[in-house]
């Protein structure tokens, strides 16, 4: 089976899941959107759940790539904070359907089959951020804290705006809050005497 059929089914799955949610989505609807036969679907994926897990990993990989791209070329502390937050916000807005799937639709109960692959992808993201962060912590440019605390302080506040945007509770583009989110993150992550005064 061609890679394009797999890609077509993943794209169709994303479309259908976004329209009706995982529970209401059917293999028939996904096949129809992808113009795929029943045999073609089951040659590539054993079930709707298997397709959902594969789609989750694809979207997660795309999101992680967008985040890590913010660290090239290697920025200083404040530039990195700024780029990582804006990279997150830009990806959510420009990849809204994928972001909804990743942050709003995906569910842990059907993700067990991809849990190891998800952990491996998350570890690669963490390693990429740590390669940038660790020297800055060592040099006193960033406050020492666990990687999980760092990410929660960096992306957590932005994620509140993003979730409201993705769910439709707030129609405002979350990027409109970027300057404030960056300023708050800098205060949370940088030693006070190292914050650049503009």
UniProtKB/TrEMBL annotation:
PROSITE patterns: HTH_TETR_2
Residue ranges of the annotated DNA-binding region, renumbered to this chain: 26-45
Matches recorded under Pfam families: TetR_N (PF00440)
Domain HTH tetR-type: 3-63
Keyword terms, alphabetized: DNA-binding
A GO MF label: DNA-binding transcription factor activity
PANTHER family: HTH-TYPE TRANSCRIPTIONAL REGULATOR RUTR (PTHR30055), TRANSCRIPTIONAL REGULATORY PROTEIN (PTHR30055:SF187)
Name this polypeptide is given: TetR/AcrR family transcriptional regulator
Taxonomic source organism: Bradyrhizobium niftali
